[in-house]
Amino acid sequence: MKHFNKESRDYEFIAKFEAGIALTGSDVKSLRTQIPQFANSKVEIENGFPVLSNLKIPLYKYSQGQTIDTTAQRNLLLSDKEIAKLISFRNQKYMLIPIAIYLKGKWFKVEIGVGRKMRKYEKREKIKAREIARIIK
């Protein structure tokens, strides 16, 4: 079960990271049954720690009367080396975008892409190259 961010197709990535995500129990149950909404979601560095913001995880239908913020900022679990790399990429004006959320064993992981947004002509060139490669095969 892998949930993809459709907006990530508009980016050209130079590096990818796999991070754990700190979730509550009802968030985990909701992710197992429902699809998260990635609209405008991004990874930010706050106080030296990466945080996933604007990811909307729908409420779990059996959570009894809990008031849970569905778009709350969620901490990402990375090593110190990986956090240092993310900070250096961010200082170089690259965007940090969540690409996918998936289960690995019993843990939910987030794939983070480091890159920049492609311009329209770059998207067209990419599609054209893919179609040419398909014709050649």
List the helices and strands and how they pair.
Blueprint: E1 2-4, E2 11-21, H1 25-33, E3 42-46, E4 49-53, E5 74-77, H2 80-91, E6 95-104, E7 107-117, H3 120-136
Antiparallel strand pairs: 1-6, 2-5, 2-7, 3-4, 4-5, 6-7
Give a summary of the structure in a few sentences:
The chain is of the alpha+beta class.
Summarize the helix and strand pattern as letters: EEHEEEHEEH
Helical stretch tally: 3
- State the helical fraction: 25-40%
Number of strand elements:
7
CATH topology: Small Protein B, Chain: A
- Mind summarizing the main beta sheet? 7 strands, antiparallel
Going by CATH, what is the homologous superfamily?
Small protein B
- Domains, number: 1
Rg of Cα set: 17 Å
Strand content: 35-45%
CATH class division:
Mainly Beta
Detail the poorly predicted runs: none
Overall residue-averaged pLDDT value: 90
Largest sheet, order of strands side by side? 1-6-7-2-5-4-3
Quaternary state of this entry equals single chain
Give the end-to-end Cα distance, rounded to a whole number of Å. 30 Å
At CATH level 2, the architecture is Beta Barrel
What class, by secondary structure content?
alpha+beta
Shape verdict: globular
